[in-house]
Design brief:
In the C-terminal section; belongs to the class-I pyridoxal-phosphate-dependent aminotransferase family. It holds the Pfam family GntR. Keywords: Aminotransferase, DNA-binding, Pyridoxal phosphate, Transcription, Transcription regulation, Transferase. This is 8-amino-7-oxononanoate synthase. 36% of the residues lie in helices and 16% in strands. By secondary structure, it is α/β, with parallel strands linked by helices. The strands form 5 sheets. It has an 8-stranded mixed sheet, with helices on both faces. A 4-stranded antiparallel sheet has the order 15-16-19-18, with helices on one face. A 3-stranded antiparallel sheet has the order 1-2-3. Helix 2 packs across helix 4, helix 3 crosses helix 4 and helix 8 packs across helix 11. Bound molecules: pyridoxal-5'-phosphate. Pyridoxal-5'-phosphate binds next to helix 8.
Length: 535
């Protein structure tokens, strides 16, 4: 009869006991009991000096260190009651000898479990399972677990239509994607390297509004490229437009507030305001963007979200008279305007139009800019220009959201902007995207002729292809037929807030910045063939 608590006792009690079926020359050790199969893999110890461990595979998540596996098995035995609270463990020397591992390995396993509170030890005493631990009753039936109570915000976002997360098809016309070939990898690496080599003496949190040198570089860029004058304190660097819009909603919108949105409009912005509990007030757009004449009938709106330089998705550019009407309405109704200038850098028939912010004399406009359309949506960098009176609120909201945008990328962008690399890159991508746009327009004309009418191609990186003879109800079937042929196209319907506002003909939103001209041509030919063959 072995002494209680000796390694032999633990082994016989089932903690580490030989099992049959182990490879020759090894001893398989595992704990019995109602373990899950993942836990119940035997540990196999070689009898030779070279130890071998079953399941120890560097490419698998089981690639735990030996001491981690001993620890995991001990935890499992504590959980299933094999090692009850207060029971003594074998000495590290005894268990190491029994398992054929070094004593250091077992000591490391014990130390880790002591640190986690599973084991206790007293000077001169045996290591024991911590008193007061309760055996784990095992995974609870999902159905029996009480549902977590979501906040009103959580309930609102779960009630929204699910995002389209389908894997990308072979040729994808998704808006927002850029071609990987356009990314200026060498220039960006130089900028990142330079930022890395600065090696600050201390690593700490910075100004939540962003690195001062990036804000200064953005200030100069906005003046050069968009004719905008603003103070440094008005610029807040954010993680893409999306965060900028989210901060606007947090700071300016209470549940029940009315928020004017373009109809159709940008779903990701609508999602933010809906999640904040806003009452969305859709205002129709036409070929010139928001129909500002319709605003007069809207009283008490708190905020309006607009894309005046290139309406998303229909592509209209808001003319000067409508810009003035929009600003006048905002002033009269006390509303704030969020101007999303997401792709204002791309204008194919003339110079980029002036930003709405440039006309704002009363501090009502929040300007949202991004590098997602010029450098990469993966960098997650954008910026806000906020009215001076809102600077402190935005700085604090950004600090509470995530402290600050990533410093290294900010420093790289600051350098890229200040040294002229950004604008050199812009000239290149403008040219390439002009070629892609021309390829798309020619391919649509060639494959569909008068069966397609193109809207909104004068600016930006997408257009809308309307199919006047196809009823709107066919949009989803068109997208599905295209996807079956390996082509990603996106119906215009879901960009409408209210189904009743959808036009009766089908339309597809086609982004063209993600692929080269040849791929675009091939994609449109395949699209035409797939639609022609669709039932
Ligand atoms: C209307 C609009 N705003 C903003 C963005 C960019 O968002 P972000 O800067 O968060 O990447 C896009 C991207 O497609 C967009 O379509």
């Amino acid at each position: 009869m072995p002494r209680p608590g000796s390694s032999r006792a633990i082994l016989e009690q089932g903690s580490y006991r030989a099992q049959t079926g182990a490879p020759r020359g090894t001893t398989a050790l595992a704990a019995p009991g109602p373990w899950s199969s993942a836990r119940n893999r035997p540990i196999v110890v070689g009898r030779s000096r070279r130890k071998r461990w079953a399941g120890l595979d560097a490419s698998s998540p089981r690639a735990l260190s030996v001491s981690a596996r001993i620890g995991a098995d001990l935890k499992a035995q504590i959980a299933d009651g094999t090692c009850p609270p207060g029971s003594a463990l074998p000495s590290t020397r005894a268990l190491a000898a029994e398992l054929g591992v070094s004593r250091t390995t077992v000591t490391a396993a014990y130390d880790q479990l002591i640190a986690e509170g599973y084991l206790e030890t007293r000077p001169g005493g045996r290591t024991r399972v911590a008193a007061g631990l309760r055996p784990d009753p095992g995974p609870r039936e999902a159905a029996a677990a009480p549902p977590q109570r979501l906040s009103a915000f959580g309930r609102r976002i779960l009630a929204m239509p699910p995002p389209d997360d389908a894997p990308a098809p072979a040729i994808d016309f998704r808006t927002g994607d850029l071609s990987g070939e356009d990314f200026p990898a060498l220039a960006w690496r130089r900028a990142l390297n330079a930022a890395l080599l600065r090696r600050p003496a201390r690593l700490g949190y910075g100004d939540p509004r962003g690195l001062p040198e990036l804000r200064a570089a953005l200030q100069a860029y906005l003046w050069r490229a968009r004719g905008l004058r603003c103070g440094l304190d008005q610029i807040v660097v954010v993680n893409g437009s999306q965060q900028g819009i989210d901060l606007c909603a947090r700071l300016l919108v209470d549940p029940g507030d009315r928020v004017v949105m373009e109809e159709p409009g940008y779903r990701a912005a609508r999602g933010v305001f809906s999640a904040a509990g806003a009452a969305i007030v859709p205002v129709p757009v036409d070929a010139d963007g928001l129909r500002t004449g319709d605003l007069a009938a809207i009283g008490g709106a708190r905020l309006a979200y607009v894309t005046p330089s290139h309406q998303f998705p229909l592509g209209g550019v808001l003319p000067a008279a409508r810009r003035q009407a929009l600003l006048d309405w905002a002033e009269a109704s006390g509303a704030t305007i969020v101007e999303d200038d997401y792709d204002g850098e791309y204008r194919f028939d003339a110079r980029p139009v002036e930003a709405l912010l440039g006309l704002d004399r009363t501090g009502r406009v929040i300007y949202v800019g991004t590098i997602s359309k010029t450098l990469s949506p993966q960098l997650r960098l954008g910026y806000l220009v906020v009215p001076p009176a809102l600077g402190a609120a935005f700085a604090e909201a950004k600090r509470l959201a995530d402290r600050q945008a990533p410093g290294l990328e900010q420093a790289a962008l600051a350098r890229f902007l200040a040294e002229g690399g950004y604008e050199r890159h812009l000239r290149q991508v403008r040219r390439r995207n002009a070629e892609r746009r021309a390829a798309l327009l020619a391919a649509l004309a060639e494959s569909f002729g008068p069966a397609v009418r193109v809207e909104g191609a004068a600016a930006g990186l997408h257009l809308v292809a309307w199919f006047p003879q196809v009823p709107a109800g066919r949009e989803a079937a068109m997208a599905a037929a295209a996807r079956a042929a390996g082509i990603g196209v996106y119906p215009v319907g879901p960009t409408y807030h209210e189904a009743a506002n959808r036009p009766d003909r089908a339309g597809l939103v086609l982004g063209f910045a993600g692929s080269g001209p040849e791929t675009i041509r091939a994609g449109i030919r395949r699209l035409a063939a797939a639609l022609a063959a669709a039932p």
